[in-house]
C-alpha cells in the first residue's frame, strides 16, 4: 500500500499544483475585487452577466458551439468515407490531416493573410475579385476627371454629361486627367485618333491626356498618351439611353443608332472604386471566417478518429445490405452512420469542449476594429485580466464560468470512456 502511494505521490503533487490549486484559487479570487483587497462575494458574477462585452462573447460562443463542432464532424465523416473509395486515399489523408501539425499561432497568421482585404495579398479576395472581373469587365477609373470641364460637367459620383447636345455624325474627343497609373493595363496601348463618324453614329476617343516627361498639346492625342479601355459612353435623348459603346483597347468607340442630337454621358460606374473583394475580417463576417480556419485545422482530426471507427465496422453488414438491394446512400445512412454513432458522439463532444475554450485563432485573426465583434469568453477573460483591465476578480469569475460550461461535456466524455472500457 505504501509503495503504491509512493508511486502516486509525484503525479498527485503535479495534479494538485497544476489543476486543483488553480481551480480552487480562481474560485476564491473571483469573490474579491480587482486588486484582491476587498471581499465582494458574487458581485463579479452579477457584473459579468450585465456587461455587454460578456454578452457578445457568450453569443459568439453559442455560434461556435452550434456551427464548428457539427461542421468538423460532418466533414470528418465525409473525408473518412472518401478515403476508402479513392485510390490515393493515403495522400488525401495526409493532405487533410497536415493542418493539425500547425500551431494555432501559425494558422492564425496564415489566415490573417488569406483574409487580407488587399487582393494582391489576400488569397480569398484574389479569388473573389478574379471571379467578379470575369463577369464584370467594365473599366473603372476612380478620381478620374475630364480635362475639358466646359464640355463635360458633373462629378465622379454622379457621372459626367456634355453641356450641349452632340449631333449624329459628329466625332468627339474625351481627354481625361487624374488616372491612377496602376489602373492602366500592364502594357498601355497608345490612343488613336477617332474614326470618322457615319450618319446615325457618334464616334470618339477616350484617353489619358498626359505626356510623360512633359510636353504635348492639351486636348490633343500625342504619341505617348495612353488609351483608356473599358470606358462606357452613352448617348441620351430626353432622359433615355438611345445608344452606348465601350471604348476599345485603343480608346476609340462608336455609338450607333443615334437619330437626333444626344447628350453624351460618362456614367458614374466608370469612376467608382474597383471591386476590392469582401471584408472577411469586418464585424459582420469575422466570426464565420475564423470558424472556417478552425474547421480547416480540425477536420483532419475528426477524419482520423472516424476513419478508425469505420475500419472497425464489419464488412458483412455492409455487403448484406447491398445484397438486399440497398444503394450506397441507404447503406451509408442506415448502416454506416448508426454503427459510427459512438465515434461521432466522441468527436462532436470533444469539439464542443475545444471550441468553448477557443482563444488563439480569435485573438490572432480578428483585427482591432473587429475584435469586439469576434469576442469569445476565453478572449474576454484574458482581456479583462491581462489585456489592460487588470481586473483579476472579474477575470477569475469568467474563468470559473467557462469551466462550468466545459465541465458537463468533460464528464460526458469521461463516462463514455469508462463504459467502453468495461
Q: What would you note in describing this structure?
A:
This protein has 422 residues and is α+β, with helices and mostly antiparallel strands. It folds into 2 domains: 28-120 and 280-421, MetI-like (MetI-like fold); 145-270, no CATH class. Helix content is 49%, strand content 11%. The chain contains 13 helices and 9 strands. The strands form 2 sheets. The chain has a 5-stranded antiparallel β-sheet with strand order 2-3-9-6-7, with no helix packed on it. A 4-stranded mixed β-sheet has the order 1-4-5-8, with no helix packed on it. α3 (52-83) runs parallel beside α7 (286-311) and α12 runs antiparallel to α13 (392-421). The chain starts with a helix and ends with a helix.
Q: What's the rounded overall pLDDT mean?
A: 86
How many DSSP helices? 13
CATH topology of the largest domain: MetI-like fold
Strand residues, percent: 5-15%
The side-by-side strand order for the widest beta sheet comes to: 2-3-9-6-7
Low-confidence stretches: none
Structural class: alpha+beta
How many strand elements?
9
Range of helix content:
40-55%
**Highest CATH level, the class of the largest domain:** Mainly Alpha
Q: How many domains, in number, for the residues?
A: 2
Assign an overall shape. elongated
Largest sheet: 5 strands, antiparallel
Radius of gyration: 33 Å
Mind telling me which CATH architecture of the largest domain this is?
A: Orthogonal Bundle
Head-to-tail CA distance between termini: 25 Å
Amino acid at each position: 500500500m505504501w509503495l503504491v502511494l509512493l508511486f502516486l505521490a509525484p503525479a498527485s503533487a503535479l495534479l494538485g499544483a497544476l489543476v486543483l490549486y488553480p481551480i480552487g484559487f480562481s474560485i476564491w479570487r473571483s469573490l474579491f475585487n480587482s486588486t484582491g483587497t476587498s471581499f465582494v462575494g458574487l458581485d463579479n458574477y452579477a457584473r459579468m452577466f450585465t456587461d455587454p462585452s460578456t454578452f457578445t462573447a457568450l453569443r459568439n460562443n453559442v455560434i461556435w458551439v452550434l456551427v464548428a463542432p457539427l461542421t468538423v464532424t460532418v466533414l470528418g465523416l465525409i473525408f473518412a468515407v472518401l478515403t476508402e473509395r479513392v485510390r490515393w486515399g493515403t495522400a488525401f489523408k495526409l493532405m487533410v490531416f497536415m493542418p493539425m501539425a500547425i500551431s494555432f499561432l501559425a494558422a492564425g497568421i496564415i489566415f490573417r493573410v488569406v483574409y487580407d482585404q488587399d487582393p494582391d495579398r489576400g488569397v480569398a479576395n484574389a479569388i473573389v475579385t478574379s471571379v467578379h472581373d470575369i463577369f464584370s469587365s467594365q473599366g473603372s477609373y476612380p478620381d478620374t476627371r475630364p480635362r475639358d470641364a466646359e464640355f463635360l460637367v458633373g462629378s465622379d459620383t454622379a457621372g459626367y454629361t456634355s453641356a450641349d447636345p452632340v449631333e449624329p455624325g459628329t466625332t468627339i474627343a474625351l481627354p481625361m486627367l487624374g488616372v491612377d497609373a496602376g489602373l492602366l493595363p500592364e502594357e498601355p496601348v497608345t490612343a488613336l485618333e477617332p474614326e470618322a463618324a457615319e450618319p446615325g453614329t457618334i464616334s470618339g476617343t477616350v484617353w489619358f491626356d498626359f505626356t510623360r516627361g512633359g510636353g504635348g498639346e492639351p486636348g490633343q492625342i500625342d504619341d505617348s498618351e495612353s488609351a483608356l479601355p473599358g470606358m462606357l459612353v452613352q448617348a441620351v435623348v430626353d432622359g433615355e439611353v438611345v445608344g452606348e459603346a465601350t471604348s476599345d483597347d485603343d480608346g476609340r468607340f462608336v455609338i450607333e443608332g443615334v437619330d437626333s442630337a444626344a447628350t453624351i454621358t460618362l456614367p458614374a460606374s466608370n469612376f467608382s472604386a474597383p471591386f476590392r473583394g469582401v471584408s472577411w475580417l469586418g464585424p459582420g463576417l469575422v466570426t464565420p471566417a475564423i470558424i472556417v480556419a478552425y474547421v480547416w485545422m480540425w477536420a483532419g482530426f475528426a477524419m482520423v478518429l472516424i476513419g478508425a471507427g469505420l475500419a472497425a465496422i464489419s464488412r458483412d453488414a455492409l455487403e448484406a445490405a447491398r445484397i438486399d438491394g440497398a444503394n450506397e446512400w441507404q447503406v451509408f445512412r442506415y448502416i454506416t452512420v448508426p454503427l459510427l454513432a459512438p465515434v461521432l458522439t466522441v468527436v462532436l463532444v470533444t469539439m464542443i469542449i475545444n471550441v468553448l475554450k477557443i482563444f488563439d485563432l480569435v485573438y490572432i485573426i480578428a483585427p482591432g476594429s473587429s475584435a469586439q465583434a469576434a469576442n469569445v469568453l476565453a478572449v474576454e477573460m484574458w482581456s479583462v485580466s491581462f489585456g489592460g483591465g487588470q481586473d483579476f476578480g472579474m477575470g477569475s469569475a469568467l474563468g470559473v464560468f467557462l469551466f462550468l460550461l466545459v465541465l458537463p461535456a468533460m464528464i460526458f466524455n469521461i463516462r463514455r470512456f469508462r463504459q467502453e472500457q468495461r
